[in-house]
Structure prediction request, 223 residues.
Amino acid sequence: DAGVIQSPRHEVTEMGQEVTLRCKPISGHNSLFWYRQTMMRGLELLIYFNNNVPIDDSGMPEDRFSAKMPNASFSTLKIQPSEPRDSAVYFCASSLGYQETQYFGPGTRLLVL
Amino acid sequence: EDQVTQSPEALRLQEGESSSLNCSYTVSGLRGLFWYRQDPGKGPEFLFTLYSAGEEKEKERLKATLTKKESFLHITAPKPEDSATYLCAVHNQAGTALIFGKGTTLSVSS
Prediction:
């Protein structure tokens, strides 16, 4: 299996621009998670989906962040407008069930200037 | 509040020098404790899951153990390729989120 696929791997943008991060989970996994990792706060859960339905978005920092999962093989995390404090590494993970072992993608390193 | 604390933050070892990493947790009903390895510029890589006190799991030079308050990741005769950040995470009974510690960065020199 190819594992969790994320794109782009690196993104540099200017403050105020829209940023879209993409994720393809492992085939057959029905839970998908978006995390953000920073030096200060470590890994934090932003949102997770079960069977394409958002279950818990309490970690989404503010209304500038939104996530969708239109089908079982694709999810997006959008930031609009982006701010410098959004600079971080964003990871997508998937699992067979929401309490099962999570497998992480390689991450998207975002820099907002 | 559920919490995971890892110590030490950083650990330097000589090749062959065994040691242990600690993960202390406070959680409302442990459903599972997970260990991950993260290399620079990569995503966390799953190592072990432990579910109940007294459980142990092994993989090559790594051995994870679990008590009611903490977990240890024992590294026996480490090699330079074991250098990475090791992350501990817990699932509580509600299972609404995987709570991660800040990690221990291990450096093994030859």
